[in-house]
Amino acid sequence: MPLNQLKNIANIPVHYVFVVRHNDQWTKPVVIRQDYLLDQWQNDKIGSEHDGNLNLYFSYSNNKVESSGLDLSKYVSDFSDFPIIEE
After folding, report:
1. pLDDT (tens digit, 9 = 90+) per residue, 60-70?
2. Among 73, 85, 68, which residue's Cα sits nearest to residue 27?
């Protein structure tokens, strides 16, 4: 993803949703807010930068999702910022 996009924090929270193929199956989505991902990139050194883009690699083991050694399991199917709309 373009780093200039990640750094451009808006008034309305933006979420990134990563759906990954693992063992020939689609995984549950990793849903992470833009400001959280930016913080993890700046402070925890998640991912790698190449040509102005942030590259992320997700690894799956023991019911755990990691990127750059950081546990992202709490973001798996995390739709807590999305209210349930009832008619």
Report:
1. 888 899 999 99
2. 73
